[in-house]
Amino acid sequence: MEKYIPNMYKKSIYDINYKKLKQMGMKYLFFDLDNTLISYLDNIPTDENIKLFNKLNKMGFKCFIFSNSNNKRLIPFKEKLNVEIFTGSMKPLKKNYKKIIKKYDKDKCVFIGDQIMTDVIGAKRNDLYVIFVDRIDDREPIYTKFWRFFERIILKKYKKQNKLIKGKYYE
Length: 171
Ligand SMILES: [Mg+2]
What we know:
alpha/beta; Rossmann fold; 6-stranded parallel beta sheet; 6 helices; 6 strands; 15% strand; globular; binds magnesium ion
């Protein structure tokens, strides 16, 4: 389980030190959508989202949304945030990560998401840099609640080992 500890843990995507990522040589940012950018109840980008992605584009990052959600849900984000989208990513399965690694230098890729079972484990299984963020909203669909059950078990273990404690952010 140890290899599934996120490289960085922040409260939200707005608290990430993007300058530091830049200095580390990172170039490609792959964001999860649901409960990372917006809540499950929303379906268009927020003003805060737009502002952040403008800033990231200006900083020279290439941004993507890498989501298990469907194409229809992702389209408004593609248009308003100027990002490429990967839909139906089937995280944590390796298949779609492999496609990305083939195309982009994996040492320059950062994955960002709110779930241990999908975002963190998916990236770490492929030896990718991953940032874990707190979820935006507790209201989640049943399949996410299913993953959260296992997440709680893992987080409990990490807490015992003093490795990752909810609310104790690090970079
Ligand atoms: Mg999510």
